[in-house]
Amino acid sequence: MSDALVQARGLTKRFGDLAAVRGIDLDVPRGEVFGFLGPNGAGKSSAMRMIACVSPRSAGSLQVLGMDPDVDGPAIRARIGVVPQLDNLDVELTVRQNLEVYGRYFGLSRAQVRAKAAELLEFAQLTERAGDAVEPLSGGMKRRLTIARSLVNEPELLLLDEPTTGLDPQARHLLWDRLYRLKQRGVTQLITTHYMDEAEQLCDRLVVMDGGLIVAEGSPSDLIERYSTREVVELRFAPDAPRPDADELAAVADRVEQLPDRTLLYAADGEAALRAAHLAGVRPQGSLVRRSSLEDVFLRLTGRSLVD
Ligand SMILES: Nc1ncnc2c1ncn2[C@@H]1O[C@H](COP(=O)(O)OP(=O)(O)OP(=O)(O)O)[C@@H](O)[C@H]1O
Ligand SMILES: [Mg+2]
Question: Is residue 236 a contact partner of residue 261, using CB atoms and an 8 Å limit?
Protein backbone atom coordinates (compact mmCIF):
# COMPACT_ATOMS: atom_id res chain seq x y z
CA MET A 1 0.00 0.00 0.00
CA SER A 2 1.22 3.48 -0.80
CA ASP A 3 1.00 6.60 1.37
CA ALA A 4 -1.07 8.34 -1.27
CA LEU A 5 -4.56 9.44 -0.20
CA VAL A 6 -5.59 9.16 -3.83
CA GLN A 7 -3.94 6.75 -6.21
CA ALA A 8 -5.18 6.08 -9.74
CA ARG A 9 -3.76 3.98 -12.56
CA GLY A 10 -5.31 4.07 -16.00
CA LEU A 11 -8.42 5.69 -14.55
CA THR A 12 -11.03 5.94 -17.28
CA LYS A 13 -14.56 7.31 -17.59
CA ARG A 14 -16.69 6.63 -20.64
CA PHE A 15 -20.13 7.97 -21.45
CA GLY A 16 -21.25 5.72 -24.31
CA ASP A 17 -18.75 6.33 -27.12
CA LEU A 18 -17.26 9.38 -25.44
CA ALA A 19 -14.15 8.88 -23.28
CA ALA A 20 -14.27 11.80 -20.83
CA VAL A 21 -11.21 10.56 -18.86
CA ARG A 22 -8.77 8.51 -20.90
CA GLY A 23 -6.54 6.52 -18.58
CA ILE A 24 -4.96 8.90 -16.08
CA ASP A 25 -2.45 8.13 -13.30
CA LEU A 26 -2.51 10.10 -10.05
CA ASP A 27 -0.69 9.97 -6.71
CA VAL A 28 -1.76 12.56 -4.15
CA PRO A 29 0.11 12.36 -0.83
CA ARG A 30 -1.40 13.46 2.48
CA GLY A 31 -1.27 17.20 3.11
CA GLU A 32 -0.88 18.20 -0.51
CA VAL A 33 -3.06 20.63 -2.44
CA PHE A 34 -3.35 19.02 -5.85
CA GLY A 35 -4.89 20.67 -8.89
CA PHE A 36 -6.56 19.65 -12.13
CA LEU A 37 -6.12 22.52 -14.56
CA GLY A 38 -7.83 22.37 -17.92
CA PRO A 39 -10.39 23.99 -20.22
CA ASN A 40 -14.11 23.19 -20.47
CA GLY A 41 -14.69 19.53 -21.24
CA ALA A 42 -11.15 18.42 -20.27
CA GLY A 43 -12.57 15.75 -17.94
CA LYS A 44 -11.86 17.46 -14.61
CA SER A 45 -15.32 16.96 -13.09
CA SER A 46 -15.56 13.41 -14.42
CA ALA A 47 -12.27 12.57 -12.67
CA MET A 48 -13.37 14.30 -9.46
CA ARG A 49 -16.72 12.53 -9.40
CA MET A 50 -15.05 9.12 -9.60
CA ILE A 51 -12.78 10.06 -6.69
CA ALA A 52 -15.82 11.39 -4.76
CA CYS A 53 -17.49 7.97 -5.18
CA VAL A 54 -20.51 9.43 -6.97
CA SER A 55 -19.68 8.08 -10.43
CA PRO A 56 -18.33 4.57 -11.04
CA ARG A 57 -15.14 4.23 -13.09
CA SER A 58 -15.25 2.57 -16.50
CA ALA A 59 -11.74 1.11 -16.30
CA GLY A 60 -8.47 1.33 -14.40
CA SER A 61 -7.78 1.21 -10.68
CA LEU A 62 -8.58 3.77 -8.02
CA GLN A 63 -7.80 3.93 -4.32
CA VAL A 64 -9.11 6.71 -2.10
CA LEU A 65 -7.85 6.68 1.52
CA GLY A 66 -6.55 3.22 0.73
CA MET A 67 -9.99 1.91 -0.22
CA ASP A 68 -11.74 1.11 -3.50
CA PRO A 69 -14.75 3.37 -4.27
CA ASP A 70 -16.52 0.45 -6.01
CA VAL A 71 -16.46 -1.54 -2.76
CA ASP A 72 -16.11 0.97 0.07
CA GLY A 73 -18.03 4.03 -1.18
CA PRO A 74 -19.85 4.71 2.12
CA ALA A 75 -16.69 4.35 4.23
CA ILE A 76 -14.80 6.73 1.92
CA ARG A 77 -17.65 9.24 1.78
CA ALA A 78 -17.69 9.42 5.58
CA ARG A 79 -14.10 10.71 5.55
CA ILE A 80 -14.10 13.09 2.59
CA GLY A 81 -15.71 16.46 1.88
CA VAL A 82 -17.15 17.27 -1.53
CA VAL A 83 -17.81 20.68 -3.06
CA PRO A 84 -19.53 20.03 -6.40
CA GLN A 85 -19.14 22.34 -9.40
CA LEU A 86 -22.67 23.68 -8.90
CA ASP A 87 -23.90 24.55 -5.41
CA ASN A 88 -26.57 22.10 -4.31
CA LEU A 89 -27.64 23.79 -1.09
CA ASP A 90 -31.14 23.19 0.26
CA VAL A 91 -33.00 26.42 -0.51
CA GLU A 92 -35.89 25.43 1.77
CA LEU A 93 -33.57 25.68 4.77
CA THR A 94 -31.71 28.54 6.43
CA VAL A 95 -27.94 28.90 6.26
CA ARG A 96 -27.46 27.27 9.68
CA GLN A 97 -29.95 24.50 8.97
CA ASN A 98 -28.02 23.53 5.85
CA LEU A 99 -25.05 22.74 8.08
CA GLU A 100 -27.08 21.09 10.83
CA VAL A 101 -29.00 18.75 8.54
CA TYR A 102 -25.75 17.62 6.97
CA GLY A 103 -24.20 17.04 10.39
CA ARG A 104 -27.15 14.90 11.46
CA TYR A 105 -26.72 12.91 8.26
CA PHE A 106 -23.16 12.12 9.37
CA GLY A 107 -24.48 10.89 12.71
CA LEU A 108 -23.52 13.81 14.97
CA SER A 109 -25.68 14.44 18.04
CA ARG A 110 -27.81 17.59 18.27
CA ALA A 111 -25.32 19.24 20.62
CA GLN A 112 -22.37 18.31 18.41
CA VAL A 113 -24.19 19.59 15.35
CA ARG A 114 -24.98 22.91 17.01
CA ALA A 115 -21.36 23.44 18.05
CA LYS A 116 -20.01 22.37 14.67
CA ALA A 117 -22.40 24.65 12.77
CA ALA A 118 -21.39 27.64 14.91
CA GLU A 119 -17.70 26.93 14.30
CA LEU A 120 -18.18 26.53 10.55
CA LEU A 121 -20.36 29.65 10.25
CA GLU A 122 -17.51 31.57 11.83
CA PHE A 123 -14.95 29.96 9.51
CA ALA A 124 -17.07 30.81 6.46
CA GLN A 125 -17.80 34.33 7.76
CA LEU A 126 -21.53 33.66 7.66
CA THR A 127 -22.42 33.98 11.35
CA GLU A 128 -24.40 37.15 10.67
CA ARG A 129 -26.45 35.35 8.00
CA ALA A 130 -27.07 32.15 10.02
CA GLY A 131 -30.84 32.58 10.24
CA ASP A 132 -31.30 33.81 6.66
CA ALA A 133 -32.61 31.90 3.69
CA VAL A 134 -30.02 30.62 1.21
CA GLU A 135 -31.49 32.10 -1.95
CA PRO A 136 -30.64 35.80 -1.39
CA LEU A 137 -26.98 35.06 -0.52
CA SER A 138 -24.33 36.27 -2.96
CA GLY A 139 -22.50 33.73 -5.12
CA GLY A 140 -19.44 33.98 -2.88
CA MET A 141 -21.49 33.39 0.27
CA LYS A 142 -23.21 30.34 -1.25
CA ARG A 143 -19.83 28.94 -2.21
CA ARG A 144 -18.52 29.49 1.32
CA LEU A 145 -21.59 27.77 2.73
CA THR A 146 -21.10 24.80 0.41
CA ILE A 147 -17.47 24.57 1.56
CA ALA A 148 -18.52 24.91 5.22
CA ARG A 149 -21.02 22.10 4.69
CA SER A 150 -18.33 19.88 3.17
CA LEU A 151 -16.31 20.28 6.40
CA VAL A 152 -19.05 19.09 8.78
CA ASN A 153 -17.52 15.60 9.09
CA GLU A 154 -13.95 16.96 9.52
CA PRO A 155 -12.77 15.36 6.27
CA GLU A 156 -9.17 14.31 5.72
CA LEU A 157 -9.60 14.88 2.00
CA LEU A 158 -11.52 17.74 0.45
CA LEU A 159 -12.58 17.69 -3.21
CA LEU A 160 -13.36 21.11 -4.65
CA ASP A 161 -14.73 21.32 -8.19
CA GLU A 162 -14.15 24.88 -9.48
CA PRO A 163 -14.42 26.53 -6.07
CA THR A 164 -14.34 30.12 -7.37
CA THR A 165 -15.74 30.05 -10.91
CA GLY A 166 -18.02 33.01 -11.54
CA LEU A 167 -17.02 34.93 -8.40
CA ASP A 168 -15.63 38.45 -8.31
CA PRO A 169 -11.96 38.97 -7.33
CA GLN A 170 -12.73 39.91 -3.72
CA ALA A 171 -14.91 36.83 -3.18
CA ARG A 172 -12.23 34.63 -4.78
CA HIS A 173 -9.50 35.98 -2.51
CA LEU A 174 -11.59 35.34 0.58
CA LEU A 175 -12.15 31.75 -0.53
CA TRP A 176 -8.45 31.25 -1.30
CA ASP A 177 -7.66 32.43 2.21
CA ARG A 178 -10.08 29.86 3.70
CA LEU A 179 -8.59 27.06 1.58
CA TYR A 180 -5.11 28.09 2.66
CA ARG A 181 -6.17 27.85 6.31
CA LEU A 182 -7.46 24.33 5.69
CA LYS A 183 -4.14 23.39 4.11
CA GLN A 184 -2.34 24.66 7.20
CA ARG A 185 -4.52 22.38 9.29
CA GLY A 186 -3.33 19.47 7.17
CA VAL A 187 -6.44 18.90 5.04
CA THR A 188 -5.47 17.33 1.72
CA GLN A 189 -7.23 19.08 -1.16
CA LEU A 190 -8.02 18.26 -4.76
CA ILE A 191 -9.07 21.33 -6.72
CA THR A 192 -10.22 21.63 -10.31
CA THR A 193 -9.95 24.98 -12.00
CA HIS A 194 -9.58 26.63 -15.35
CA TYR A 195 -8.04 29.69 -13.72
CA MET A 196 -4.29 29.60 -14.02
CA ASP A 197 -3.86 32.16 -11.23
CA GLU A 198 -5.93 29.97 -8.90
CA ALA A 199 -3.77 26.95 -9.72
CA GLU A 200 -0.60 28.97 -9.18
CA GLN A 201 -1.81 30.40 -5.87
CA LEU A 202 -3.21 27.27 -4.30
CA CYS A 203 -1.64 24.14 -5.71
CA ASP A 204 1.55 22.45 -4.57
CA ARG A 205 1.36 20.26 -7.64
CA LEU A 206 -1.04 19.94 -10.52
CA VAL A 207 -1.86 18.09 -13.69
CA VAL A 208 -2.74 19.90 -16.87
CA MET A 209 -5.65 18.08 -18.51
CA ASP A 210 -6.88 18.32 -22.06
CA GLY A 211 -9.29 16.04 -23.88
CA GLY A 212 -9.43 13.53 -21.02
CA LEU A 213 -5.64 13.13 -20.83
CA ILE A 214 -2.94 14.45 -18.53
CA VAL A 215 -0.59 16.44 -20.75
CA ALA A 216 1.82 17.60 -18.02
CA GLU A 217 2.38 17.27 -14.30
CA GLY A 218 4.44 19.19 -11.75
CA SER A 219 4.52 22.16 -9.40
CA PRO A 220 3.43 25.46 -10.97
CA SER A 221 7.04 26.71 -11.01
CA ASP A 222 8.37 23.40 -12.46
CA LEU A 223 5.84 23.52 -15.26
CA ILE A 224 6.62 27.13 -16.11
CA GLU A 225 10.34 26.41 -16.11
CA ARG A 226 9.92 23.29 -18.22
CA TYR A 227 7.49 24.59 -20.82
CA SER A 228 7.99 28.34 -21.00
CA THR A 229 10.62 31.06 -20.80
CA ARG A 230 11.04 33.38 -17.83
CA GLU A 231 9.30 36.30 -19.52
CA VAL A 232 6.78 37.01 -22.25
CA VAL A 233 6.26 40.11 -24.37
CA GLU A 234 2.70 40.75 -25.49
CA LEU A 235 2.43 42.84 -28.65
CA ARG A 236 -0.91 44.32 -29.68
CA PHE A 237 -1.53 45.65 -33.17
CA ALA A 238 -4.36 47.80 -34.50
CA PRO A 239 -7.06 45.55 -35.99
CA ASP A 240 -6.28 46.45 -39.62
CA ALA A 241 -2.53 46.99 -39.26
CA PRO A 242 -0.22 44.41 -40.84
CA ARG A 243 1.41 42.12 -38.27
CA PRO A 244 4.96 40.86 -38.55
CA ASP A 245 4.96 37.15 -39.28
CA ALA A 246 6.52 34.63 -36.94
CA ASP A 247 9.60 34.19 -39.17
CA GLU A 248 10.47 37.87 -38.88
CA LEU A 249 10.26 37.65 -35.09
CA ALA A 250 12.10 34.34 -34.73
CA ALA A 251 15.44 36.14 -34.40
CA VAL A 252 14.33 38.21 -31.39
CA ALA A 253 12.63 35.54 -29.25
CA ASP A 254 12.98 31.86 -28.30
CA ARG A 255 9.43 31.22 -29.46
CA VAL A 256 6.61 33.19 -31.06
CA GLU A 257 2.86 32.60 -30.66
CA GLN A 258 0.31 34.36 -32.84
CA LEU A 259 -3.05 34.70 -31.06
CA PRO A 260 -6.13 36.27 -32.65
CA ASP A 261 -5.64 39.52 -30.73
CA ARG A 262 -1.93 39.43 -29.75
CA THR A 263 1.52 38.26 -30.72
CA LEU A 264 3.51 36.70 -27.87
CA LEU A 265 7.31 36.67 -27.77
CA TYR A 266 8.85 34.19 -25.33
CA ALA A 267 12.28 35.17 -24.03
CA ALA A 268 14.36 35.06 -20.85
CA ASP A 269 14.66 38.86 -20.98
CA GLY A 270 11.44 40.41 -22.20
CA GLU A 271 12.68 44.01 -22.33
CA ALA A 272 15.64 42.96 -24.47
CA ALA A 273 13.32 41.06 -26.84
CA LEU A 274 11.04 44.09 -27.10
CA ARG A 275 14.02 46.35 -27.92
CA ALA A 276 15.23 43.89 -30.53
CA ALA A 277 11.75 43.79 -32.09
CA HIS A 278 11.77 47.60 -32.30
CA LEU A 279 15.18 47.58 -33.95
CA ALA A 280 13.81 45.08 -36.46
CA GLY A 281 11.10 47.60 -37.36
CA VAL A 282 8.18 46.07 -35.46
CA ARG A 283 5.75 48.84 -34.41
CA PRO A 284 2.96 47.50 -32.19
CA GLN A 285 0.16 49.71 -30.93
CA GLY A 286 0.86 48.52 -27.39
CA SER A 287 3.29 46.21 -25.61
CA LEU A 288 3.60 44.58 -22.22
CA VAL A 289 6.38 42.53 -20.61
CA ARG A 290 5.31 40.01 -17.96
CA ARG A 291 6.44 36.81 -16.25
CA SER A 292 5.36 33.50 -17.78
CA SER A 293 2.32 31.83 -16.22
CA LEU A 294 0.52 28.50 -16.42
CA GLU A 295 -1.53 30.02 -19.24
CA ASP A 296 1.66 30.05 -21.31
CA VAL A 297 2.34 26.44 -20.33
CA PHE A 298 -1.12 25.45 -21.50
CA LEU A 299 -0.74 27.34 -24.76
CA ARG A 300 2.59 25.64 -25.38
CA LEU A 301 1.21 22.18 -24.66
CA THR A 302 -2.09 22.41 -26.52
CA GLY A 303 -1.79 25.35 -28.91
CA ARG A 304 -4.90 26.85 -27.33
CA SER A 305 -5.80 29.33 -24.59
CA LEU A 306 -7.23 28.02 -21.33
CA VAL A 307 -10.20 30.33 -21.22
CA ASP A 308 -11.96 30.86 -24.50
N1 LIG B 1 -23.18 12.59 -17.47
C2 LIG B 1 -22.61 12.75 -18.67
N3 LIG B 1 -23.11 12.15 -19.77
C4 LIG B 1 -22.52 12.29 -20.98
N5 LIG B 1 -21.41 13.02 -21.19
C6 LIG B 1 -20.86 13.64 -20.15
C7 LIG B 1 -21.43 13.54 -18.83
N8 LIG B 1 -20.65 14.27 -17.98
C9 LIG B 1 -19.66 14.79 -18.74
N10 LIG B 1 -19.78 14.42 -20.03
C11 LIG B 1 -18.86 14.79 -21.11
O12 LIG B 1 -17.56 14.42 -20.74
C13 LIG B 1 -16.60 15.38 -21.15
C14 LIG B 1 -15.83 15.88 -19.95
O15 LIG B 1 -16.72 16.60 -19.11
P16 LIG B 1 -16.33 17.13 -17.68
O17 LIG B 1 -17.55 17.71 -17.08
O18 LIG B 1 -15.62 16.06 -16.92
O19 LIG B 1 -15.28 18.27 -18.05
P20 LIG B 1 -14.71 19.46 -17.17
O21 LIG B 1 -13.24 19.46 -17.38
O22 LIG B 1 -15.20 19.34 -15.79
O23 LIG B 1 -15.32 20.74 -17.89
P24 LIG B 1 -15.88 22.13 -17.26
O25 LIG B 1 -14.67 23.01 -17.13
O26 LIG B 1 -16.81 22.61 -18.32
O27 LIG B 1 -16.56 21.84 -15.98
C28 LIG B 1 -17.39 16.46 -21.87
O29 LIG B 1 -17.33 16.20 -23.25
C30 LIG B 1 -18.80 16.28 -21.34
O31 LIG B 1 -19.76 16.70 -22.29
MG1 LIG C 1 -16.31 20.55 -14.61
Answer: yes
Spatial CB neighbours of 208, under 8 Å, sequence gap ≥ 6: 37, 38, 214, 215, 216, 217, 223, 294, 297, 298, 301
Low-confidence residues of the chain: pLDDT under 50: 1
pLDDT at 7: 98
- 193 close to ligand 1 (CB < 6 Angstrom): no
Which ligand 1 atom minimizes the distance to the CA of 49? 18
**Mutation test of ligand 1: which of 12, 18, 302 has the most ligand atoms closer than 8 Å to its C-beta?**
18
Considering the entire predicted model, what is its pTM? Answer: 0.92
208 pocket-lining for ligand 1 (C-beta < 6 Å) = no
Which of 44, 210, 304 to mutate for ligand 1's pocket (most ligand atoms within 8 Å of CB)? 44
Cα 235 from Cα 243, distance rounded (Å): 10
Domains and CATH numbers, the chain: 4-219 (3.40.50.300), 229-292 (3.30.70)
Which helix (H) or strand (E) segment holds residue 10: the answer is strand 4-15
- Looking at residue 223, its pLDDT comes to 97
Report d(CA 216, CA 251) in Å as an integer. 28
Ligand 1 atom closest to the Cα of residue 162 is 27
State how far the alpha carbon of 108 is from the alpha carbons of 80, 116, 148, 154, 194, in Å: 16, 9, 16, 11, 36
**What is the pLDDT at residue 260?**
86
Atom of ligand 1 nearest to the CA of 85: 27
Please tell me the distance from the alpha carbon of residue 37 to that of residue 201, in angstroms, as a whole number: 12
Label residues 279-308 b or e (16+ Cβ within 10 Å = b).
eeebebeebebeebbbbbbbbbebeeebee
- Distances in Å between the Cα of 92 and the Cα atoms of 6, 53, 88, 135, 290 are 35, 26, 12, 9, 48
Pocket flag, ligand 1, residue 44 (CB < 6 Å): yes
Which ligand 1 atom is at minimum distance from the Cα of 39? Answer: 25
